[in-house]
Amino acid sequence: MKGPLDRDSRDTDVPKTAKQSLPHLLLNVPALAGRSEAEVADHLGPPVPGMGVMDPNRTKLTYWGGKVEVVFVDGKAGWIKLYGTGDLPFSKAALCKLGLPVKRPTYVNSQHVISWHNLPHLREVSLYGGGPHGSVSSVLICVQTNPQPASMRSPKPRISFPRLRALGHA
Questions:
Q1: Other Cβ atoms within 10 Å of 13 Cβ, number
Q2: CA neighbor of 57 nearest in space, from 74, 71, 33, 69
Q3: Whole-model pTM?
Q4: To the nearest whole percent, how much of the chain has pLDDT over 90?
Q5: Cβ atoms of 131 and 90 closer than 8 Å
Q6: What do you get for the CA distance between the two ends of the chain, in Å?
Q7: How far is the CA of 36 from the CAs of 12, 40, 72, 157, in angstroms?
């Protein structure tokens, strides 16, 4: 089983002084997001045995002894969940330990949740507080997926004429 650092974070072409200044990555999210099961296993090691198919289009696999869960949607990593162990701060500084650019969050509830909807190739990253010593209890990463075809989208809500009359618009 590989450790928290994967191959991409130990690039041999980087000079020694630059390597020393790189942050310690807890999980390299860009190397996992949207990747196949084989590519994710290449970075995280083999999944924990005994997990399997959720439905025909989704498979949930667990890695690192249950600390990381990845849901594959149509064969690609669509959701990634990391359970906190006390080494990820409940602040925007946590993004650099996930291999992501540090940006201003789009939603903050100072004690419970910090979310970003403005990170490249990701739909959402949410940190959940409540871990030991003010750390993160879990991180949920939703990968940007292809838009659904029009036939799969839920219909727009319709407003009936009686409701429009009640609102004074008809």
A1: 5
A2: 74
A3: 0.71
A4: 52
A5: yes
A6: 65
A7: 25, 6, 8, 36
